[in-house]
Structure formats: C-alpha cells, structure tokens
Specification:
The chain is mostly beta strands. The chain is built from one helix and seven strands. The strands form two sheets. A four-stranded antiparallel sheet has the order 1-2-7-6, with no helix packed on it. The two termini are 48 Å apart.
Length: 168
C-alpha cells in the first residue's frame, strides 16, 4: 500500500484503492482530484461560459472559451499553485436600457487544474474567443531513458571503513 489519503465518504467515479498497487508517488495527484470533487462535485460544475480544450501538438494544448461581449479589461487570468483561474466581469453601463437580453453578460469564474509540467505560454482574445496556449515542458530528468542492467557485482573499494586509509 502506498498510503493514499483519499476521503472515501464522497461519491467519486474511481476507487483509488485498486490503483495503489500500480501507481507509486501519485498521492498528491489523487488528493487534488479528491479535493476538486469535494469542491465542485459533478453536479456543481459550472457550464458558463462554454469552452474547449484542444491538443494542438505533441506537447501543446489550447483552451478556447466563448466570452462574447467581454473585452481584455473584463477578463483576468491567474495562475496559482497549478490552477489556472479565468475570471470575467463586465462593467455595466447604467445608461443603457436593455429591452430584451438574449446575450448573457454575467460574471464567471472557471478553474483548470494544470499538471506540474504545464506552462501557460500566452493568451489572446480573438473574435469573442479567449484562447489560452499551454505547453507541456518535460524536464530532461523526466523524459524516458533506458536503464542498463548490470552484471551483478559492483566494484568494491579496498576500504573497510570510511576512516581507514586505502592500502596499496
């Protein structure tokens, strides 16, 4: 057992107890998934504004969010501790009298949990679509590498203790 600290009192679509014999060191990720489920749950997920997440290359992604009517000054993006938060708040003109409102102009907050290796490259607002460009930067030490298998015995030093001097 790897000792996952998962709260089993909540209905979560996965049983992490079955995974712990195959996944080593994923405790933090499972804790984040559980925390996300505790915060939002499936029924509490917001559906406004609509968005797409696209894989645009081998290590690149894009988030597209339909934010018609919002300008650059109405949208705030914050990256904090692996969470990308997108806030939208329109400044309403009190002088405008709306007779019929079919276009939503309500405030919104959307959060995306990003892996540790994902970096936000930039964001653009194009034709009512907020586009956030992401890249998965894999450090050299996390890239796949072949591990050579030795012959069994490591060459040993003639020293018996760290304090002894080596005899010729």
């Amino acid at each position: 057992m790897t000792g996952f600290t998962v709260n089993h009192n909540h209905a979560f679509p996965f049983d992490f107890d079955k995974f712990d014999r195959h996944f080593v060191g994923f405790d933090r990720m499972f804790d984040r998934l559980t925390k996300f489920n505790d915060q939002f749950g499936v029924a509490k997920l917001p559906n406004y504004p609509p968005y797409n997440i696209k894989k645009t290359g081998e290590n690149t992604y894009g988030i597209e969010m339909a934010v018609a009517g919002f300008g650059k000054s109405d949208i705030e993006l914050i990256l904090d501790d692996g969470k990308l938060t997108v806030n939208g708040k329109l400044s309403v003109d009190a002088e405008d009298m709306v007779i019929y409102q079919g276009i939503s102009n309500r405030e919104f907050t959307r959060q995306f949990s990003l892996a540790d290796t994902i970096e936000v490259k930039n964001a653009d607002l194009i034709n009512g679509m907020l586009k956030v460009w992401l890249e998965n930067i894999i450090p050299e030490h996390k890239k796949p590498k072949k591990i050579e298998i030795g012959e069994g015995e490591k060459p040993r030093s003639k020293k018996k203790l760290l304090t002894e001097e080596e005899n010729p």
